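Researcher: Please predict.
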Amino acid sequence: MIIVTINQDGTGSVALPGEMVPIARSTADEARTSAVEVLTKYAAYTGRNVEVETREGDQLQYLRVYSDGRVEPIDAPNPLAAHAVPSTAPAQAPDTTPTKLPPVPPLPQQTAQRIEFPPATPAPSAAYAAQPQPSALPAPSYPPIDETTQVRPTPAQRQNAQPTGDAPQTRREARGSFLTDQTPAEEPATQGWRGFATRLGIRLSPSDQERNERHDVHAVSQHWPGPRTIAIVNAKGGANKTPTTVLLSSVFARFGGAGVLAWDNNHTRGTLGWRTEQGPHEQTLHELLPDANRLLGPDAQAADLARYVHHQTRDQFDVLRGKPTVLQQGERIGPGDVDQIHAVATKFYRLVIIDSGNDETDPVWLRMIDKADHLVLASTTGEDRAEVGALLLEKLAERDERTRQLANNSVVIISEANDKAPAEKAQKIADGFRSLTRETVTIPYDAAMVQGLLRYGSLKPATQRAWLSAAAAVARGL
């Protein structure tokens, strides 16, 4: 069996007998196309079909490639076949007649054509046919009709009537419903070799990996009854709180639609505004506060918020900035201001994600905790940041019953601090948090997260997938 390896960056290889053919393309899909071209030529050269094992990360797929370029999935080889007990029945000569497969109809120029294969219906076995078949269902029993007036009993009479056995009491109950099966049909695969076969016209179901991704997308796409507030915390600076705020906001807005606000609640020069796109103004929460009462009035509209927030045109969420350019004393607000801002935010946004400072004794920080519906602890693989984060969760669990529930239901997101640290380190820290939190998620190192503007689309595919998993873990707690 020929081994084909495809990487997400478009590189890969085809391991032919006695020769390794390298592949270098721009995307993984182009690399798959090149691999099929190599395998088709090899099948034509050898005069036989080629069975292939494809490897993409930890995902395996088994295919058969024909000399005319057709590709079809096959079952994985049985590793126990070599150890099977030989049969005592007389051997029969194998049937070497090649299977006649219908040719793929020619496709019109620049037009995709899907080839549908109807599912095979197995014929009933002789043993099944010999069994007695069930008789027709008994006629349903309806409530009696009053013979004197030919009027069916009233609802009150039916309610007081004593039922006999398990017979339904109304026509509606007897009929049931035509809408009992509302399960949507599963969409065909769009990723990997299965997606590649789908685009060739062979409709295949998605892999487990693609199904898991669809489940996470469904989780973050939900809208909840009433607004939700998520606080991003860690009492240690440099714990990745701001990237966590931005990228969670991006995922929820991209997949769940508008109505997501990222709010900088940091007295010590919060940099949320520096890591996100600036709108056509320089307004901050300090300009919003004097207008809070007007925005809470009945005549205020959602579009009025555009004067104070900064819309992220690519990632579809808004940012309420702090003002890190002034002295800390000039930026300070009080708990009552947090109440005002939160009231405005939850009036116009379905999801509010708050980036916080490092001082958990600050009344503004504590007021944020009082407003939060969910807690996310951000950390890197630095041991000091992880330790401070763990201590914070422990202290919150001791504060009162409400914050204990917040801490127990929290999600911890561990981001790899640099490309030199082994992946096992992030997992080790995540495992250490399991007794303190509901879920832990690790994020691989990505240079696009280190500095400059943060955009979800700038991340590597593996990093995007990790943030989708992190957002889904948060969504499960809402």
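Model: The longest strand covers residues 50-56.
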